[in-house]
Fold these 2 entries.
Entry 1:
Amino acid sequence: MPPAVQFFNLDFSYPDKTDVLRDISLSISPGERVGLIGPNGAGKTTLFLLACGLLKPTSGEIRLLGQPVVKGGFNPDIALVFQRSDDQLFCPTVGEDVAFGPENQGLTSREVDLRVQEALTAVGGQHLSARPVHHLSEGEKRLVAIAGALALRPRIVIFDEPSAGLDIRGRRRLIPLLQQSAPTVLIASHDLELILETCTRVLLMDMGQIIADGLPRDIMSDEVLMTAHGQEKPHSLVPHQVAHRHTAA
Amino acid sequence: MSHQDNRPDAALLYRWDPRLRIVALLLLAFAFSSIKELHAIPAITALTLFFWVISGLPARRLWHRLRYPSLLIVLLAVTLPFAGGSTPLLNLGPLTMTQEGLESALLITARFYAILILALCFLGSTPVHQTIRAFQALGLPGIMADIALLMVRYLEVLAQDLQRMRRSMQVRGYQGRACSWKTIRTTALLTGNLLLRSYERADGVYKAMRVRGYGHKRPTRGGFSATMADKAAIAAVTVMAIGLTWFG
């Protein structure tokens, strides 16, 4: 079975910003849940946009399931859940938005309805189907955005900051979705505890390069490495020798 | 205008196929606008009342929607009787009200309100996105329908952005006094900022649409189906419209 995602010597620059990605070479196997961590501007979102064919590399190549990624092409095997749910939820109602992807796959009405039901059930949002999108809470928007991606029945799902703006309850509802949404999952997040909880592999990125690649616990426990690249050790990996809460006298 | 202002399912007008509802509205609007005789006014008034009743649109809400357009027509209705004509009815100092002027004012006012109320009843009874889809089913190009739908969808988001920006200005002491250079400048900055945000958002939305296949295949789902009752209703409206055009 070919790797799920491969990047070969990838470089990318925007017109007004050079070296956003520098010589990225990476292979992600089917079944892996990979977390991308790093400071803002490290290139995580750009990497995702390239993987989905929304941007064209300056040089290098990207392959999805063994096939080269073509800019502007549509590959339903890969789905992207955007950081801002409002960008992704552009249809008037939840049901219509979730149906958007399957309709573009040329499926029949019946198949589309089935996919919508399936996807909304997977996120626990069946009751939202007729709701106008702008009437949803932030947590509900996130769930619907995920449903919209799942409706494509992708083999790879990319999540860009999935827990941003969510309350504790929303975050807890998100975790099983991140773990079970697709065979292969890529998650970019500043929520390091979320990455620890959901990912089997972590990539630390900074200034357009992959700095470290390995087990989440190994990389995130390295305080020097994490601090040097704008991160910090997740709280759950900090030994609790000193009381960490200061209470008023 | 809230674009979720749809009538309850119980309203008879709401059950009509949206495409045929639009066609009926256009037919009636054309017919109403073509009447030239005062004796047709009771007929168009009766029809308008009939459709208002079956739309279930509350009188209060209807009046709310009519307020601002009424300012315009009232101005016209008040001045037109004095604007011309050869049969004087009343002298008010230098002004002379004529029969022709009064008749014109009555005709224009009756047609205006009839068409406007019909439009509010027919279109106000459907969610905006369904209306746009109905127009698309009637032949509106897909790209225009998509633009209209996206406009409707993101107006709320823009309004929320604007509200947040205004609040942030208020908490920093901005009071927005009219006709001051500072107000003009601030309004211009606010507008420019909203435009920039809209552009960035549009870019994000477009990427989200592309990644889910937009532009690769035109979706073939319809979603409308007219019943025999719908077809009978449009036939009846067509007859009424022809009758009004002929005899009005």
Note: The radius of gyration of chain B is 24 Å.
Entry 2:
Amino acid sequence: MPAFAVAAVVGVLFFLGYRYYSSYLARKVYVLDPAFVTPAHEFNDGVDYVPTNKHVLFGHHFTSVAGAAPIVGPAIAVFWGWGPALAWIVLGTIFAAGVHDFGSLVVSVRHKAKSIGTLAGEVVNGRARMLFLAIIFFLLTLVNAVFAVVIGNLFVANPGAVIPIVVEIPLAMLIGQYIYRTRSSALIPSIVGVIVLYALILVGNAFPIELDGLAEALGVEQTRNVWVVLLFAYTWIASRIPVWVLLQPRDYINSHQLFIALAVIAAGVIVGMNTIQAPVVNDVPEGSPSFFPFLFITIACGAISGFHSLVSSGTTSKQLDTETDARYVGYMGAVGEGSLATGAVLAATAGVAASQADWQALYPDFATASGGAVGNFVDGVAVFANNIGVPLDLATIFAAVVVISFAATTMDTGVRLQRYVVQEIGEIIKVRVLARNLTLATTVAVLIPLAMALLPGGGEAGYTFGVLWQLFGTTNQLTAGLALSVLAVWVTRRGRNPLAILIPLVFLLAMTSWALIVNLQRFIEADNWVLAPLDALIFLLAIWLMVEAAIALRTAFRERPQPGAEARPTSDPAVARANPTSPTDDTELGQTSRDEPR
Amino acid sequence: MRHRVVLVRGPRAAAGGGGCCSGATRPFDSGGGHRHVPPVDDVGAVYRALRAALPRDVAVEVVSPTNWVWLVPALLTDGRRRGLRGAALWRSVRAGIVVESLICDGAVLASGRLPAPAAAVAAVETELAVAELEQVTTAAAARGRTPPRAPAPPP
């Protein structure tokens, strides 16, 4: 099957999903009102709250949600064949991620642009806020652990990428300082930064950095673990310095890299006309995890990611000009992420291997598949880059640099965000030193994922990583489950049909719980007493989430207004803007279901 | 929308980016150990002044300097609409993508540092008046009539 044809079919399906399904959601489920005064207008301060052109806002939103996760998951999941992986990406994007990202944005906009954590407490109940905090704590722990392992593995496999990535840090800081001091454009210095970064690939290729000797001297069995420790030492420092010193200028460079990588994949697929070498459905060896339920937690970002609800309800909802823009910004953000995941599937099935036998050699069992997935993606993208004339050795380092840059930025922000969560937990459990002491909070935020990344998990690199990745996917899906619960309760209380939200919610919770139970059984049988309690804890969170969602939905169904009581949006903007008590703010639907008064 | 005013955010303002599972997000809105401090630059004050002074059909867009995918085509389109070509258009785009810039219908009114809100409003209003006059002149020329006289500039 030509990769180009698959990409074209996926593109058509995404278009149809946006054209028809998002239109249904906008009209019948979220009932968008063009006259609703969004928080961007209500609290317009020109800083955080600014009514923003929907194309501008889409750019901000997409670059915030796109990263390394939609690359890693699909590159592992093709182990079950490209058919199931691609089917989940397409169906998940259209019927789950679109509903979730779009809905989180709408509900946040209807509640003064509050974040999903706050909304969980307000729309579901007070306990849901605590549940959200617990889930997000595990999610961030696992995000930081898996990305440290991803980067460590890539450094070991591509020592030529070390110099460009290390030099990218002072380079980004220089760019930030240059822009700040000269008040010049961000575009030209960041383009120069990308050029310097890619020129350093030549240097890196000539002087590869390997830490095998250091690992041996320290008595560390896997060189990757030395990299993991160095990475966490770096993030401890990086997460404590102001955002604009390093993180923000590095985002300037990464925003170019995102588009360059997408363009290279698209051009390489078209020019090379590579065909997919993986089977549609892979006949996996006995004892491998089955694609039901593991596929659905292996691909989280790219099909549905709970973390998008944080972005939707974080910065995006504060800048939405009109409520109707939510369809374009939220749903298309999910489609963009799905497109990136599709590119990852193509790289790991069409780019990486010249024949089916070659591909089978890369994906013989789940341990090898998960351990080598990112490397396979890198090699696949390198082949696509080679199709357009880049020498293969340099193209491989280029692809590794792109993935490491994304993953490192994710770790930077992940540790920073985890620090906030640790401080929040410190406040709740009334341990003032944890809430106020930045050094302690950062140390806790770094040490826990570091321990996870260094876990003894089965000897070979791949096994530990595959399991950690699945646990990360589980917590990401639970975050999505919590956000979908908020949406379902909100929609039900307004007397609308919540089926479009309930179906992905039930599916996600079922798959997540099923996978957690199977894994728990496996960990206990293997006497893995580090991962078993962690799995059990996450399973308890899943049960807690199901109970809270069921209670909240039952109450919402009881309180739902009778048919015909649904408020109709007015088509006259002046009516709603001039009259805040008009039906457009849903205030007639009962006290409990009321949106925030304007 | 008849006119478009673009404000480019400062070098330390919040922007998109950061990758999946990151970005400028917080789990909760308030409380806890983390207190959100909005970035301080002149863009907010200028934006509020412009929005209060300008009619609704003038779009005021606040854009991150990193959002070049939107910013560059917008500057090119608006510049071309003003009749800029070649080197002049290039200079206009280069000045427009600088942090803390103010652009009105493709004309770069400030680049690298924003004027005070009142001065920014005055500059934009003058620019809009000129643009309106140009439109009237062009329309009149097309119909073969004499255009009205330009209003006297403010003292």
Note: Chain A touches chain B through 81 residues (CB under 8 Å).
